Amino acid sequence: MVQLRSPCSGTPASVFLMNRTICCCFLLVSSVIGLAAQTDRKIDPRESKIMVLERLWNEAQVNRDSAALDALVSSRFVNTEWDGTITDKQSFLADIKDPRYRPTSANVQDMKMNFFGDAAVVTGVYRTQGTFQGKAYDHVGRFTDTWVYELGRWQCVASHTSLIKK
Q: Can you give the CATH number for the domain in which 135 is found?
């Protein structure tokens, strides 16, 4: 799963993206709160935060925003791709910048979270679409992301994806 954060550069396009991101976060948090009220299930505030971070990761991938992703992943980040390729943070961010990589959508669903102290393991289903090296792709798979709360913020330390056979 290609995955989020950056400071605003001040250009009109980046201001638009920042405002859109803020609106999306507000809507996402509102829907999570609404869902919790409907199901009488108490949502852990950490769960809401990580749900937003997962969705921001996907938005950053589609926008090829390596600065946003840089803020989301730890310096010790390890990524295991759907094809078995293992990359570190620098390689992961370089892939996002690759002009041959052109994602058009990235979505997650069925997310489940388990907390272990200051760590969270998130599992779910993802779908990414776009082109790479001029060839279209449409990947549906499962993902596992491991987040750690350190120095006052959540960062992803590991991500693993595997394709679901169609």
A: 3.10.450.50
Q: How far is CA 38 from CA 101, 108, 109, in A?
A: 40, 22, 19
| 87 or 40: which leads in pLDDT | 87
CB 78 within 8 A of CB 148: no
DSSP bridge pairs for 87: 79
- In this predicted model, which residue has the larger pLDDT, 25 or 164? 164
Q: Is residue 123 a part of any domain in this protein? A: yes
For 43-70, what is each residue's pLDDT tens digit?
Answer: 789 999 999 999 999 999 999 999 999 9
Q: What DSSP designation does 61 have?
A: H
Count structural domains, the chain: 1
Residue 7 within any structural domain of the chain: no
3-state secondary structure 125-162: EEEEEEEECCEEEEEEEEEEEEEEEECCEEEEEEEEEE
| Residues 145, 164: Cα–Cα separation, whole Å | 17
Lowest mean pLDDT among 34-38, 90-94, 140-144, 151-155: 34-38
pTM of the model: 0.74
**Rounded to 5 degrees, what angle do the CA atoms 71, 148, 139 make?**
70
